[in-house]
Amino acid sequence: MSFSDHKITAFQHKITDLPDQPTLAPNELKARFDSSPEELRQAVNGICDDASRLEARVEGIVVDTFGDTIDREMLSDELAAELDAKATQTALTGVDSRLQTAESTLQTHTTQLTQKAELYFGTYTGDGTASRLINIGFTPKAVMVMYGGYSSHWNGSQTHWYGGLALTGKPVKASDGRSVLTIETGGFRVYIEEEQQFANYVRSNIQNGTYYYWAVK
Q: From CA 129, how far away is CA 209, in angstroms rounded?
């Protein structure tokens, strides 16, 4: 296997590929968030393993051919001087190249770190009020709310909206436009409206109902 076999041209799963209202179970969602770092870890480890094997092979060739090492005394004075000059220039070029690579890598990682997000999980119990703010201590970038493993379901001619995926500026609304889940300062707001409108019921805050959520900080 060559080093190029470890190249990552694209991650298998991207969060941006998820629909606005994912239907994945919580453990599957967590696996999606972990998949890209895991692919990167495996690729880096593979490069390190291949480099170790290559280093061992080169050392074996040197030992078999020259008896462990090539001494400077084994070369002519002219060749030794020429190699010294080339080695110095090569070393300097190599150092400069490695410094540029390290700087580029650092800048890339710095950019990536600023794009990292913290994921928080929690539950809340509905109190049956028409509108209620669930305070989580920060204003999230995204919130996913589920009730009993689903965010909405259809029952004959009736659609029940229990939650969904809300993003900044993109709340979850029933098909008739009523709010189901909105992001607000300090947390997110949930609702309940049992009055049927166009066969829709809003139920993200049912009395004594248990809801599960994850929020991206």
A: 12
Max CA pair span of the chain: 97
Q: Model confidence over 104-138: pLDDT tens digits?
A: 777 776 666 566 778 999 999 999 999 999 999 99
Closest alpha carbon to 161 in 135, 191, 189 = 191
Residue scoring higher pLDDT (209 or 57)? 209
Q: For residue 27, what are the CA distances in angstroms to 30, 42, 101, 166, 195?
A: 5, 21, 37, 19, 34
Q: Of the candidates 38, 33, 6, which has an alpha carbon nearest to the alpha carbon of residue 17?
A: 33
Structural contact between residues 201 and 194, judged by C-beta atoms closer than 8 angstroms: yes
Gap between the Cα atoms of 95 and 88, Å rounded: 11
Q: What is the helix (H) or strand (E) element at residue 32, kind and residue range? A: helix 26-66
CB-CB contact of 197 with 178 (8 Å): yes
SS3 68: coil
Look up the pTM and report it: 0.47
The per-residue pLDDT for range 18-56, each reduced to its tens digit, is: 676 667 677 776 776 677 777 777 767 777 777 777 677
